[in-house]
Design a protein that fits this description.
single chain, alpha+beta, 8-stranded mixed sheet, 8-stranded antiparallel barrel, 9 helices, 20 strands
Length: about 400
């Protein structure tokens, strides 16, 4: 019996080990070839997807902002690429209407190049007919993937942790890579990019100027991606979407344009002065507060939601028992929720808001006990607002309207 139990236990242990081994073997590891031509696939934290003419695209994936400088001589990089793949031209031409992918890894320090070609046959036979002339039709686009391997001083890699003095000595320079991926109707279209080098440089200069810091005091802040349409018409920019759409990413992949996240959220100090009609008296007033502005609409960043907390003093004038003028200062704390539209050329946004307020400072006989108000802010033009309001005082026993004119 003991022998039977021992034999059963050994069989179960062996089966468990086999299952674990099989489970571990199902995890696909990238081949050494893939690692050689995609050396740092998850390292890119600044991605620019540029829409070119004729449905072609160029995607820049950077490790740091300073890497834009390496792409400013894009024409030289592409000229070297064309020269280095000349030996394989005949084979590429024999692929007919199929598509190709060319990986090109250029080590800037050692001045070495690694090249890989993938040829994909056409999915069926496609043709186009025009004026009784029939010619083959290529549908799938080619991909040119260029990787630049570079190094930087370790002290510049602020979010790279190296433990111990020996580690710092061995890694005095930090190796990293950046890449440019071109999706073209034909790989030979890189010749057009070389010829149009001034336009490519202008695009890269524009992206560099629109850059945002990648690393803050607390280290890496996440992947930031943008889609840039340098050839978008002015009409489309005004009525459809801006030329540069920003994304906030967590996995480094742009799935679709529904991933858009507004990146223009900000906190402002807001103030205005005005005059209000309170019962039968005119009273100077002011607003001073903090406002959070958040982009609301996915494809129209000109429209934002605004949330504000304000202190609103109201100055009422009266006479005391001796006939001297005195100032009775009352004050509300108000909470506002509104929408504002940033029109091109406007220094201040056009806004509409709803709000509620509670009286925290009461002096004189205008208000009694607990006092509330509800109001609406309507902007008449860039500098003037009008705010109709309903005031509820004396614990809800009295209700009367008010009106305030505000000037920025």
């Amino acid at each position: 019996m003991k022998r039977l139990m021992l034999l059963t236990a050994l069989i179960l242990i062996s089966a468990k080990g086999m299952l674990r081994a099989q489970t571990n073997n199902t995890i696909a590891q990238p081949s050494k070839t893939d690692q050689a031509f995609n050396p740092c696939e998850k390292c890119y934290i600044h991605i620019k997807d540029i829409v070119l003419m004729k449905d072609e695209r160029m995607t820049l994936e950077l490790f740091r902002i300073e890497d834009y400088a390496l792409f400013k001589n894009m024409d030289s990089i592409l000229m070297n690429f064309r020269k280095d793949i000349t030996f394989y031209k005949d084979s590429l031409d024999n692929n007919g209407i199929g598509n190709v992918r060319i990986d090109y890894v250029y080590n800037l320090k050692n001045n070495t190049r690694k090249i890989r070609f993938h040829k994909y046959p056409a999915n069926g036979a496609s043709f186009v007919q025009q004026n009784n002339d029939v010619s083959k039709l290529k549908i799938e686009q080619d991909t040119v993937h260029i990787v630049l391997e570079n190094t930087m001083p370790l002290k510049q890699a602020t979010y790279v942790k190296v433990k111990g003095a020996l580690g710092k000595q061995l890694l005095s320079t930090f190796p990293y890579s950046i890449q440019a991926t071109f999706v073209l109707n034909n790989y030979t279209d890189v010749d057009h990019l070389i010829t149009d080098k001034a336009e490519i440089k202008r695009i890269i200069d524009t992206l560099e100027e629109a850059k945002k810091p990648l690393v803050g005091k607390r280290g890496h802040v996440g992947v930031v991606s943008s889609v840039y349409r340098p050839y978008l018409s002015q009409n489309m920019k005004e009525h459809w979407r801006p030329a540069i759409i920003k994304y906030r990413q967590y996995i480094g992949i742009i799935k679709d344009e529904n991933d858009y996240q507004g990146s223009s959220d900000y906190l402002t100090v807001d103030m205005n002065v005005g005059i209000g009609l309170l019962r039968n008296a005119l009273a100077p007033t002011a607003d001073l507060g903090l406002q959070i502005v958040r982009t609301r609409r996915r494809y129209d960043p000109k429209v934002s939601n605004a949330y504000g907390l304000y202190f609103q003093p109201i100055f009422l004038f009266d006479k005391n028992s001796t006939g001297d003028y005195i100032t009775n200062t009352n004050a509300f704390v108000t909470l506002r929720l509104g929408e504002q539209t940033n029109e091109e050329g406007c220094k201040r946004p056009i806004a509409t808001a709803l709000g509620v307020g509670y009286l925290i400072l009461n002096k004189g006989n205008y208000f009694k006990n607990n006092t509330f108000k509800v109001f609406m802010d309507l902007q008449l033009n860039k500098a003037v607002r009008i705010a109709p309001e309903l005031i509820i005082t004396d614990n809800g026993k009295q209700i009367f309207p008010g009106l305030t004119l505000k000037v920025f």
